[in-house]
Specification:
The protein is mostly beta strands and 238 residues long. The chain is 13% helix and 45% strand. Strand 7 (94-98) and strand 8 (103-115) form a beta hairpin. The chain is globular, with a radius of gyration of 21 Å.
């Protein structure tokens, strides 16, 4: 089985966002000062944002924003207002139908959204009193786009949404065999690739070019990782 992996940075709300092609902000319940302004500017200039339910409910003093969520002006940027949140009992379930016809099970949380006319619906609830209401939305703002996921869905649905946004962002996704970790670090103008085989079977990884710093061997396209093997590659420049 081949999977795609995206190397990520975990950043605070105060971080400068302009260098990122895609920002994911799950359950950002509390907004610090200037966070909403920073997100608005990022999207307006062409950034891609994925946000979820329980975003922008309170400020740094735990005071709720008035006029609907997400607060501090983000509802206009996102194109949605969360008017209510349905919290499930552990055994409760709902379902969402996504844009491609696939189904996704919902548990724990489901927000009820009111959307602007220019919002695109990527998923709708299938059951309960909010059947047919939007569960996943997309809104253009300036040169960028916001995708809002209003419910806690199973991982396959989240993966499908992320793949859609990643493809639009033009990010480079290395293809990896199952059980292999891939991490990239940059320092002093050099790029280093860390490969870890987490299984007891040999793995083959393509498109690796550079020098293996543990063995000093050259890597020219395809490398093989022994069971539970580790490789640190200084990437070839250019």
């Amino acid at each position: 089985m081949i999977r795609c992996l995206l190397n990520v940075n975990i950043i605070p709300q105060t971080e400068e966002l302009s260098e990122y092609k895609l920002v994911v902000a799950p359950m950002m319940y509390m907004l610090k000062p200037e966070t909403a302004v920073r997100l608005k500017e990022y999207i307006q200039k062409g950034g891609q944002l994925l946000a979820t339910y329980v975003t922008g409910y309170v400020d740094q003093n735990q005071l709720c924003y008035l006029g609907g969520f997400p607060g501090d002006g983000l509802k206009d940027v996102f194109g949605v207002i969360s008017e209510e949140i349905d919290t499930f009992y552990p055994t409760d379930r709902n379902q969402v139908t996504l844009w491609d016809g696939s189904k996704a099970q919902v548990r724990d949380y489901a927000e009820l959204l009111r959307v602007q006319e220019d919002v695109r619906i990527l998923g709708q609830y299938d059951a309960d009193f909010y059947q047919g209401m939007p569960a996943v939305t997309e809104h253009s703002y300036g040169a960028g786009t916001v995708c809002y996921v209003a419910a806690r869905m199973e991982s396959q649905a989240n993966r499908r949404i992320l793949e859609l946004l990643v493809s639009r962002s033009g990010l480079d996704l290395p293809k990896l065999p199952e059980g292999v970790e891939y991490h990239v670090r940059e320092a002093g103008g050099e790029r280093y690739i860390f490969l870890l085989n987490l299984e007891e079977k040999e793995k083959q990884i393509d498109e690796i070019n550079g020098t293996d710093l543990l063995t000093q061997k050259l890597c020219d396209g395809t490398v093989k990782l022994e069971p539970y093997g580790v490789m640190v590659v200084k990437a070839k420049q250019g």
